[in-house]
Design brief:
By secondary structure, the chain is α/β, with parallel strands linked by helices. The chain contains 11 helices and 7 strands. Pfam families: Methyltransf_3.
Length: 256
């Protein structure tokens, strides 16, 4: 592995990411056009209809051109394994970004229908371009909005009780716990559903982690995977994989 691949955070691309991070919670983008550039790169470099090549091409763009804040190749393997174990018919992702996570979900679960919630309309368009190029646009629906908007996005999603087999959290880390609770309040997770949470180590989701720790063995059964932040090997990260054990105790207990 080359030094560039091992230490991408030393590249100018990563420094631009750090500078643009203040925009992410409000715009969902870094602010330098890298997301649209990733879609252009996929459309010109990846084989149409080849989901494996599209995923590999996004990874190549993130390593060789501009760092991306999707789950990435290393942690993506953990997501793949969780998806295969859940074998979902219906999956929900919070945080579409450029559509990479949804690609990995539909690849690992060929019969799944995936819904992805994204704050940024621009990111949603990037993701739709990439999904179309990969040939999976008929299996993934992007809903522009946020779970914390007072119920509007939840109402648009409109799942039935127990319909969700898989939930992937990869959006605003401060919203992980509140958004999970909103979904629990709707009763959408079936007993045995799998919830995967990225970036619990960096930038961190301490309230979510504390909640899962408190309810270990009662409401949830959680495994913490020690891994690295996306597209580098020095910054440690955590991915939490949690099995939903049912509706006991009340999801409103635990840290606020």
């Amino acid at each position: 592995m080359s030094l560039t691949r091992r230490l991408p955070f030393l590249r100018w691309s990563f420094l631009r990411l750090a500078w643009g991070a203040r925009h992410i919670t409000t715009t969902g983008q870094i602010g330098d056009g890298r997301e649209a550039a990733a879609a252009d790169f996929v459309e010109t470099r990846a084989r149409p209809g080849d989901i494996d090549d599209v995923i590999a091409t996004i990874d190549r763009f993130a390593y060789e051109h501009s760092y991306l804040i999707n789950v990435g190749d290393e942690k993506g393997l953990l997501l793949d394994a969780a998806v295969r174990r859940a074998a979902p018919s219906t999956a929900l992702e919070l945080g579409t970004y450029c559509g990479y996570g949804a690609l990995r979900i539909v690849r690992a679960a060929p019969r799944a229908r995936v819904f992805s919630v994204e704050l940024s309309p621009a990111n949603a368009e990037v993701a739709r371009r990439i999904w179309a190029h990969a040939g999976v646009a008929d299996r993934v629906t992007c809903v522009v909005g946020t779970i914390g908007d007072g119920g509007t996005t939840l109402d648009r999603l409109g799942f039935s009780p127990g319909q969700l087999d898989l939930l992937f959290l990869d959006h605003d880390k401060d919203a992980y716990l509140t958004d999970l609770r909103a979904i629990l309040d709707r009763g959408w997770l079936r007993r045995g559903a799998v919830v995967v949470a990225d970036n619990v180590g960096i930038p961190g989701a301490p309230r979510y982690r504390a909640y899962m720790t408190e309810h270990q063995g009662t409401l949830w059964r959680t495994v913490e995977h020690k891994t690295h932040a996306e597209y580098q090997t020095l910054l440690p990260d955590l991915v939490l994989e949690s099995d939903y054990l049912g509706d006991r105790p009340s999801p409103r207990s635990g840290p606020a």
